Amino acid sequence: MSLQDTADQDALCVQQMHYHAFMRHLSIRNVPPALGERLLEEKRLRGRSLNETVLELLAQAVGLGNGGRRSNGLRAFAGTWTAEEHSEFERAIAEMEEIDEELWR
After folding, report:
1. Cα(70)–Cα(61) distance, integer angstroms
2. Which of 4, 37, 87, 105 is surrounded by the fewest CB atoms within 10 Å?
3. pLDDT of 77-100, one tens digit each?
4. Is 79 helix (H, G, I), strand (E, B) or coil?
5. Is the pTM of this model over 0.85?
């Protein structure tokens, strides 16, 4: 066995120890029935195990998934209005910003 082979094996052992040292096992209790059903539905849609599905959803929720956080699809529109369009929108909704004092008594 060459010196390089030994170094490669040592590096692999260190990587494996690091991986196992930081793996976490979680138990999630008191899952509401609606959430449990939705997770099972998502599992079936993905064709994956429940564990894999939950891990993927958690990673996605905290921005670690393949595409980052789930998007509502509106990011492409953010910042695309001109100042004139923004002013027009503000004028259009101005009435909705008024508080009806009679309703709050």
Report:
1. 7
2. 105
3. 788 889 999 999 999 999 888 888
4. coil
5. no
